[in-house]
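User: Quick sanity check before I run a bigger batch. Here is a single chain. Can you write out its predicted 3D structure?
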Amino acid sequence: MAPERFFLELDPPDATLKNQPHVVIVGGGFAGLKAAQALRGQPVRVTLIDKRNFNLFQPLLYQVATGLVSEADVASPLRLLLGKAPNIQILLGEVEDIDPTAKEVVFNNRRYAYHHLILATGSGSSYFGHEEWRAEAPPMKILEHADEIRRRVLLALEEAEQTPDPAARQRLQTAIVIGGGPSGCELAGSLMELMQRALARDFKQLDPRQSRVLLVDPGDRLLRAMDPSLSAAAGDYLRKSGVELVLGGRVQVIRDGTVEVAIKQADGTASSRTLEGATVCWTAGVRPSHLGKLLAERTGCELDRSGRVVVGPDFAIASHPEIRVVGDLCSYSHTADAKPLPGMAGPAVQMGTWVARDILANLQQRQQPPFRFVDFGTMAVVGPGFAVADLRGWRVSGALGWLLWALAHLAFMPDPENRLTLLTKWLWQIATRKPSGLVITGRSNQHLGVEVGLEDREPASVAAPVEAPQNEGNQDGHIELAGHGDR
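Assistant: Done. Predicted structure follows.
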């Protein structure tokens, strides 16, 4: 006879856990998933709360957006990853409030008690006060965003196939990507490959040579978080692929497929340029989950300038050692150079694992070694078979960089089945140069209202011209090689 369960009353999934310490994890991204996995089978009761029922492998969203892989290849159901653990319960919902005095979180109109709370809710896209741009230039943070980008690109090409006007056809064959970090470079290179290959093979009326992809960034080089030599290699590859780089460009207006850019000249003067394209994509900025601001209101904890929660050496907040904040939501500056760790997969994985182990150590009244981030480097892919990687001073680009990038991403993929699927699809694409997911689904803009915790809370006020932060490339969920030790 199957054991009786009391999920409706939110009792422990096993009666033996009733008196065990209760660890509540909010967020099932890189950090939250790793924390839950580290607590699997331990003498604690664990509840993982997430508004989605899957772990999303964000670094490969650009491949979903350009039809290289499908949604299921980058999303792993949380119950599949953790459901067999007897001490872990997974609940679907969004945490709306935190009561640190009562040690309760509020979600789905319930109050849920905890002994230890781990907040790992990650980040979303920021438009720097121009929230009205979201509908014009979708971000790339969740599956629905990637679906919307793919839908827009493919519909534009389908319309171009039936358009006799050369100027209109040129506009339909043009895509504009805003933001020159890893996400922007990957998306721009992949869009160029898609448009050239798809047009040459599948469309009869279109000239692949008329396809244009423009990559806009306010800096003087791409991938500003990486070594200048790797930025140059990435830029050279993209230019040779046909991508037009608009460097020094600060976005002023986005409206109806038109992007007005102010470009800083070498002599310090500025000129304006108007870019036109049927598809505009946004990868220029990130902002932490709104739970950081909520936590500050409830506890008085400190936030940094970007809204991330300032944490102690053990990732706890001041006056509340039972609350830990990890991943993109935390500002952890207890490093050798006193610089906060970047919001990338590598640090998030190590944070989640360490915090889980530290909670266990405290419960067992033993000391755990301090957190030490192991940084093996950063990387970004910019085209088929071409990537750049900085592995602690060993800088590589080209095919070897792509091989290292592929191995790192497969290693970080939480679901073994997805690893095999991705490897198979990548090998197929190398052999055939054919994307596998070029289906058009959904209705116009139906996905842009899907929240990731920021959209309805960020003011749409008119602000200064947009400039992506210097470390944008470090805050978009990308893999940073970092051993094993957010979305």
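Residues 182-202 form the longest helix (21 residues).

User: Great, the batch can go ahead then.
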